Amino acid sequence: MAARKKSAARAALFFLAAMFCPDIRPNGSIAMEQVFNGFGCSGQNISPALGWSGVPEDTKGFALLVHDPDAPTGGAGWWHWLVVNIPASATQLRKDAGKADGSNLPFGCVQIDTDFGGPGWGGPCPPVGDKPHRYNFTLYALKVDRLDVSGASASLAGYMVNASAIGKAKLSGKFGRKK
Hints:
2 helices; globular; 179 residues; alpha+beta; five-stranded antiparallel beta sheet
């Protein structure tokens, strides 16, 4: 019982925070540097730096899922970045880690195709005139070191991540385009 309480308390300390994520402030605006370059947007499409702390004790790996629940897709939202098999020893993903070829990610990481149609970071690009969309960066601590996600869709990968999660940390940013 004491071990379970200690584990629950440790999981409560697991977080993505502004001090570790200088490119995104909690519920703040996402910079043009991170915005997609296409679909009418003219950002640089550079993934933000993300760091974490307070990892649950039994963590064997991580997964990062970035999702826009406000995208006008009939309820599915929009997947902007999915990275699995992040080593348990990692404490950050550096700025521009989201290159499609995975060359800036820690060794062994796998990226899942986003709703843009390929792997890698796809920055915000909501429709012109929509209220600012929320972009949820959720880092999952996993009880496994590897997930076999070969050929998985973003939704299937998300299901597999959630089934193996022992903790999660979330940071949200916003971005909108005016008429």
